[in-house]
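Hey L., structure's done. Input below.
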Amino acid sequence: MAKGGGKKNAAARAAANRLLADNRLARHQYDILETLETGIELVGTEVKSIRAGQANLRDGFCLIRNGEMQLHNVHISPHTHASGYFNHDPLRVRRLLAHRREIDKLRGQLDQKGLTLIPLNMHLQGSWIKLTIGLGKGRKLHDKRAAEKDKQIKKETRAAIARY
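Output:
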């Protein structure tokens, strides 16, 4: 019997690779030069809260300390069906899981160019929760305006082409 191909399998794959949290403001505030998908070290109640959509990446940032990547200032709400004793601290520092070469490469770029690491989105990959971080350079106000203008021009062009 042949495997795959059914609608049921496609729906299961889509559910297994869904977006859990997104940091849309990061792409407005920063020019993203490079992205990296990392794992994240979580406790059980954090996993349940993230799967329920209770994560906020807006103010988050990443640092490299003692040879490991850390995620700071990302709020994951406490799980509603767990007691206060077993629940987690919403703003605790979480360790990111990446290969040593990737961490060393990012550390070199952060030291040289004055860039920063920003969490872009949190998603499921199979049963694993992954975090996509971006190496970004902060935009000035005039850069933001130019980017907004370009986006508006592209939108108007697409609308005009669709009409004809």
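Helices lie at 7-16, 24-29, 44-51, 100-113, 141-163. The mean pLDDT is 83.

-- N.
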